[in-house]
Amino acid sequence: MRSLSAFAILALFASSTIAADVVYKDRNGAELPPIAELAKRTGDAAKGATSFAPFCGICHQINGAGIDFGPNMSDVGTRKTKENILESILNPNAVIEPGFQAEMIKLESDEMAMGIISAETETEVTVKAMGGAKTTLKKADIVSRTKQAASMMPPGLHAAFTTEELVNVAEYLFSLKAKK
Ligand code: HEC
Questions:
Q1: Which band of pLDDT confidence, cut at 50, 70 and 90, is reported for residue 3?
Q2: What is the model's pTM?
């Protein structure tokens, strides 16, 4: 399955760069300039779309394409600045998008579910796991629910890209505006 192999690649990147004051490096090991400076650069949005699909489309939908797990990006350029977008890629834990905080749920059966709450009623809660699969759990079967401080978007994804590719991805996302 395509998405599974992409997750394996992801795990590699994520494990390589988790630290508070990391120096961010691109795929070639070149140090990235500060976000404010990167945000001033103009990228190639079409090329950015090509980079986005395999590394980001496994968790984000754009106009119906990709997997519905993280926030839909079809209008991200209206909601966010290019600087915000770059920050989200370099440091996903800094700002967690409202409604996308992860929860760890323990069930009486000793099973666990980890994901984003996509729906909730008085008696049930629906958890969306990485990959987009949804499971509806009865609240009566739940022992505990713990909100996770960390984003379900792994840090270190920028290391999939050259500096130019990263700028292209930011340019692409910023070009996606809400349809009137
Ligand atoms: C494993 C799943 C996953 C992958 C892969 C992933 N993201 Fe995310 N992303 C999320 C989740 C979940 C959130 C919401 C939580 C948060 O804000 O950190 C998010 C949030 C974001 C946001 C801010 C939310 C918004 O609506 O403004 C941006 C921008 C973003 N991701 C871009 C990217 C880009 C670019 C890539 C590829 C380099 C990528 N993501 C890869 C899961 C993922």
A1: very low
A2: 0.90
